[in-house]
Structures are given as C-alpha cells and as structure tokens.
Amino acid sequence: MLNFREILARLAFPLVIGLALGATFYFIQIQGIAINTVTFPVVFIALIVIALLERLIPFRSGWNKNDGDVGNDALNLVITQTIIPRLFAPFGYIVLAAVTAWLAAKMGNQLWPHHWHLIAQLFLALLIAEFGRYWVHRWAHTVPVLWRFHAIHHSPNRLYFLNAARFHPVEKVFFLLPETVPFILMGTNPEVLGLYAVFNSIHGLFQHSNIYLKLGWFNYIFSMAELHRFHHSKIINESNKNYGNNLIFWDIVFGTFFYPKEREVSTIGLYNPAYPKDYVGQLKAPFQGEVDKPADFYEREDYYHDLVKNEK
Ligand SMILES: [Zn+2]
Predict the structure, then answer these.
(1) How far apart (Å, rounded) are the C-alpha atoms in residues 113 and 189?
(2) Which phi and psi (to 5°) does residue 222 adopt?
(3) What does the alpha-carbon distance between residue 54 and residue 73 come to, in Å, rounded to a whole number?
(4) Residue 219 gets which letter from DSSP?
(5) Which has the closest alpha carbon to 180: 104, 95, 252?
(6) 53, 75, 70, 47: which is closest to 211 by C-alpha?
C-alpha cells in the first residue's frame, strides 16, 4: 500500500501545475483579468506550496539546511529573473514588433495557430522555445567561454527550489532570446505567453526542488527533478545530459536523455572548491581566470577521467 509520502510524491507536480494553469486560464480567459495581474500571484502561491512540500517530503533532508546560498539566490530572483527580463522587454516589443508587422503583412497573419485551444498553443510554444533553449544550454556546457557564465547555475552543492533563479545576467539574456523572439515574430497571443510564464516558472521551481518526487511516465515528457538532478551531478558525463528546460523531448531527439531508474544522483555542484559563493563574486567569476581555462571546465573533465581510470 502506498503511504502519504508516496502518494504526494506522485501527485504534487501534476496537481500544483494543473491547478496553476487552470486558475490562470480561468482568470485571464473567462474573467478577462489582465495577464500580469494573474501570473504573479499564481506563481507566488505555487512557490509557497513548493517550499512547504520541501519540508513535508524532502528528497534529501540535508539539502533543506541553508548552505549560505539563500541570500545569493534571493538576489538572483529579484535581479536576474525579475528586473533583467523587464529591461529586455522594450527591445522585444519595439524592434521585433516592427518585424512582426512586416511578416504578418507578407504572410497574412498565418504564422501562429490562433484558432487552437489555448493549452495546445501552450505546448506548441513550449516545443518551439525548448528547441532554442536546448541548444543554448548544450553549448553552455560544451563551449568553454559559455561555460564561464553557466558554471554559476551549477555552483550550489545542494538543490532546492530557489536554485531555479541562479543564473548570470549575461546568460539570462541568451536564454531569453529563444523564449521570446520566435513568439514575437509569429505573433503569439499574450494569453499563451501568460500560460507559458506560469508553466515555465513553476516547472523550474519543481525541477530544482528538494521534494521527493516520483514522476513515472512524466519523465518522458517533462524535464523534471528526477532527470534534472543528474544534470547537476559533479560527474561530467551525467551533467552533460538532460538539457531540457521544461520538456525532455529535444534530449530524446538529440541523444542526451539520461534516466538511470535504479539509482539517484550522488554529489552535485562544481569540482572547483574555490569557486566564489557570493552574488558579486559570481557576477565577476566569468571574467576571471585564464582565458583558455574557464572556471571548472577542464577540472570537471579531469575529475571524470580520474574517476573512469579508478574504476578500471
Ligand atoms: Zn546546465
């Protein structure tokens, strides 16, 4: 018989994200409330629920202890995740809207399937954005200069919901491109983008959360915590897998899907013990160190090769 912990492990993600999408759909589509008025409170309530679930059914109880990282992550949440996208918005709406108008005139406004159900449009938006994000993320792991900026996201030694916010502002802009430019160009409905924002935020919080989750066949659709924890592994051939931000589809297509069911991840984080832990130190980190030897990039490979050597 399944106990309370096992039942919650299976229901938490589909229930919270389902209710959040349902509430967003109801308030913006049926009640006609402004999108920005709806998305923030919905994500905020989900964030509180996720934080509580981490206490109720933790994946690793040790990961619930503040590692001196909460202040850094909170700054990332405010600066990188809230202020930076808003600075980026005028560019999107002024420059790209002009291109959109030109494209619409040429193509007769047929670029986006506005007649589809809103949830189907959301999945189309996810599939398109995820393609760009997949490659930006994969290059961030394999091109040394890009790893300099991405290492920050992999620097925590534990996973909990706020890790979802930790990105370098430069990389945040790179990630924003594939999830904004195609939609502005294709004239996607603001309602779909509102649903996308809710899905993306809540999925990210769950993906990095320290909640004991059992996703089952959802692991073949979403890039959820059970898969993403391997992406944060200290071992390079585990962390260079499961690049998906929301969906795991492109990892399956491009051969980077990694789902060992019989075990869980061991140590997570960077190999370099001297990597800065504070917000300002991490802002500066990509610009420091030897040009051809960015923080932790080759160290991770050496670490992996040593490990393989020792196993033989
Ligand atoms: Zn990564």
Answers:
(1) 10
(2) -100, 155
(3) 16
(4) G
(5) 95
(6) 53
Element (H, E) at 301: helix 297-311
CA of 92 from ligand 1 middle (Å) equals 25
- Supply 20's token pair: 């959040």
The pLDDT of residue 153 is above 60? yes
- Nearest to 304, CA basis, from 227, 243, 224, 233: 233
Which residue type sits at 28? I
d(CA 134, CA 175): 10
CA atoms of 292 and 64, how far apart (whole Å): 36
- Through-space distance between the first and last CA atoms of the chain, rounded to whole angstroms: 42
Q: Sign of the CA dihedral 27, 29, 34, 37? A: positive
Task: State pLDDT tens for residues 43-61.
Answer: 999 999 999 999 999 999 9
Residue 312 has pLDDT above 80, yes or no: no
Q: Write out the two tokens for 285.
A: 């980190």
Give the Å distance between the CA of 264 and the centre of ligand 1.
18
Over 80: is that where the pLDDT of 305 sits?
A: no
Distance 8 CA to ligand 1 centre (A): 28
Non-local CB neighbours of 268 within 8 Å, separated by 6+ positions? 156, 157, 158, 159, 229, 232, 233, 234
Nearest Cα to Cα of residue 294 among 146, 174, 182, 191: 146
Measure 296 CA to ligand 1 centroid, in angstroms. 13
The whole-model pTM stands at 0.88
DSSP three-state, residue 272: coil
Q: How confident is the model at residue 121 (pLDDT cuts 50, 70, 90)?
A: very high
Of 226, 73, 230, 241, nearest to 141 by C-alpha is 241
How many angstroms separate the CA atoms of 12 and 50, rounded? Answer: 9
Please tell me the distance between residue 154's alpha carbon and the centre of ligand 1 in angstroms: 6
> DSSP labels for 44-100?
HHHHHHHHHHHHHSBS-GGGGS--S-HHHHHHHHHIIIIIHHHHHHHHIIIIIHHHH
